[in-house]
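Morning. Coffee machine broken again, so started the prediction first thing and wrote up yesterday's gels while waiting. Chain of 392 residues, entered below exactly as on the submission form.
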Amino acid sequence: MSKLFTPLPIRGVTLRNRLAVSPMCQYQAVDGFAADYHLIHYGRFALGGFGLVMVEATGVSPEGRITHGDLGLWNDEQVDGLARIAASIQQHGAVPGIQLGHAGPKASLLRPWDGNSPVLETPKFADEIRWPTFGASPVPAAEGWDAPTALDDAGIAKVRADFASAARRALTAGFDVVEIHAAHGFLLNAFLSPLTNTRTDSYGGSLENRMRLPLEIARDLRAIWPDDKPLFVRISAVDGSHEGWTIEDSVTFAKALKEIGVDVIDNSSGGFGVFHYPTGYGFQVPFAARVREGAGIKTMAVGLIVDAQQAEAVVANGEADIVALGHAALNNPNFAFHAEQTLGAADPAAPFANWPTQMGWWLDHRAGRLAALGPVRVQVPVQAPAPVREAA
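Came back before lunch.
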């Protein structure tokens, strides 16, 4: 029996399998509003058999966006577009989730394919002016970037209120899972990391103080999010620099989040421009395993997981409870259904029975015809001989 295709109940929600789609920014929103692109983009993963489909990082405030193309949930008018997406995901058998975030010192950027750098006044982006950026401390996100403004007490209170308001709107939109983005050098990660948090007040210095704001936000959202719905937190399990946040810090943080009522830790890494750890296929899986064992909490593993057997091993070996795919899902939105077949979890007599009926009926019919025909025999056309030129 495939462990990857064992249903996973979390509170009152059950994932049909352990495969999730990672939140991946698409930068296709206008003023934070979801478009038809997003409806099609996320719907295809639900149609492709994933258990959980996580909508990309969604700004809790205008200044919390990474780029002008980010989704947002800072006003009520943005709810309807996301509600269509959540309903579509749910209609096709997957659990709809949404990641809420604040980019902090990495806000006000150009889209990645346009440079992934702070928005500049150029002819191409004349209408995309910069907005002020905020951080734990005035530490630039990268060399040559402006230093963000360190949040004061009023700014911290606003961030907490913005996350809470966005969570209420996510609930109204019909999402079953909400994830707090505390990774990749964005605002909450900037508070956690000693590389970017040089504060001397109650939000800086010790590990306890650096964890304070993310824990306050987790507590706020757990009070808002219904008891029967799961709460996830995405972390950078390590900063990348050995002088920064460590895996032991992540275990401590995960224990505190578990006490608050967080259900799953989504383990990524990095975000500060350096990475001193080994990389390769599944390189972040050991982080998920360490947090799962050390904190006694469910984890989600990500990072260069590219095929069915690899994903199966992560769950079967007890390294994580959920496997999240990013690029692999973009490359193959039907990854989950193909993995089900590869791992023998599908009915051999009707290998497409679990696909949406509108597709599965045709594909099972086709499979029967192909079985009757046998292997494909490719006939190589015989090349005609070149004409012989007569001697003059």
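The mean pLDDT is 94. Going to sketch it on the whiteboard this afternoon.
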